[in-house]
Amino acid sequence: MAIANLCMATLLGARWIEAGYFPLSNLYESLFFLAWGITTVHLIAENTSRSRLVGVATAPVAMGITAFATLTLPSEMQKAEPLVPALKSNWLMMHVSVMMLSYSALMVGSLLAIAFLVVTKGQDIQLQGSSFGAGGYRSNGYRLHKAGELVTEPDVNSIADNNGYGRYKGSNNNGNGSSAVLNIVAADTQAVTASTLSPQRLSLAETLDNISYRVIGLGFPLLTIGIIAGAVWANEAWGSYWSWDPKETWALITWLVFTAYLHSRITRGWQGRRPAILAASGFVVVWICYLGVNLLGKGLHSYGWFF
Q1: Beta strands in 95-195 (DSSP E)
Q2: pTM higher than 0.85, yes or no?
Q3: DSSP code of 305?
Q4: Do residues 144 and 125 make contact, with C-beta atoms less than 8 angstroms apart?
Q5: Are residues 291 and 161 part of one domain?
Q6: Ranges for the Cytochrome c assembly protein domain (predicted)?
Q7: Which of 144, 164, 196 lies at the terminal end of a domain, its last residue?
Q8: 10-residue block means of pLDDT along the chain (307 residues)?
């Protein structure tokens, strides 16, 4: 993935030098920038989490984007053309690049949320603990329970006799005082009302949920900054901060979807399936905002498409 990232950066840099402007003036360039952004976010997430699971979701999407740009778009669209007057502004780099990076981060986070839903088979898994996961407390014998699962807990005084199985409540690793609760039960003392996922799947699900949350937390501020920069640019160019252009409208919808996601995680304390469904819907919304509205061929952002 690092090699792919370097190759795309070299391609974009060469076009920048050749054309004399930042390579984000048409669909071909923006697709490659999007793919480069996805690989960049992948490398950041992989290095931060020390997990190679990110590539399972990001590699096929990055490959598909570059293949679409190279094999599907006509050769005329792949050439660097002089900028249209509306794009001859320093805001091009500020607004468009930040928006594309936000799309990259939000797509990666949403893809990991979709992977979470696949791993958990759509079941309502209750991940108890801080927003960053409670993986540091879990070892052999620890199990995260599904919502609605009935658990018979041993007496606290018998924890030592049961090899440490019991219920633990305490402060989490980040020192913010919030509780991290783990239900830890012995096999011969538990009673469940439904079938459980394997410990491997539960551990994988927790990792995906954690990384997805962090990556979306990175993409959301970028989206906010990009929208604000676009509004300032629009006011300088056309005398209005907001004109309800289709792209602007869908950018606002995208912002609201991920606002709801972060609100559910931070304020409501949701984890698991419900925020993952929100993030998965955000994946579709981001693609509509980036590519879908251009099919209309209307508005200030309609340049650079097939028409």
Answers
A1: 167-171, 179-183
A2: no
A3: S
A4: yes
A5: no
A6: 24-301
A7: 196
A8: 92 87 83 94 88 85 92 81 72 85 95 90 60 38 44 43 41 42 34 54 84 93 93 81 84 94 88 88 92 67 51
Residue type present at position 304: G
Among 201, 214, 212, 208, which residue's Cα sits nearest to residue 144? Answer: 201
For 229-233, the CB contacts below 8 A with 24+ separation are 229/91, 229/94, 229/95, 229/98, 230/91, 230/95, 230/99, 232/91, 233/89, 233/91, 233/94, 233/95
| The two structure tokens encoding residue 179 | 């509780």
Q: Are residues 86 and 233 in the same domain?
A: yes
Name the residue type at position 93.
M
Residue 294 and residue 303: Cα distance in Å, rounded? Answer: 8
CB 277 within 8 A of CB 123: no
What are the backbone dihedrals phi and psi of residue 274, each rounded to the nearest 5 degrees, phi first? -60, -50
Question: Are residues 50 and 102 both part of a single domain?
Answer: yes
244: amino acid identity, one letter: W
φ, ψ dihedrals at 256, nearest 5°: -65, -40
The CA dihedral of 49, 41, 133, 125, to the nearest 10 degrees, is -120
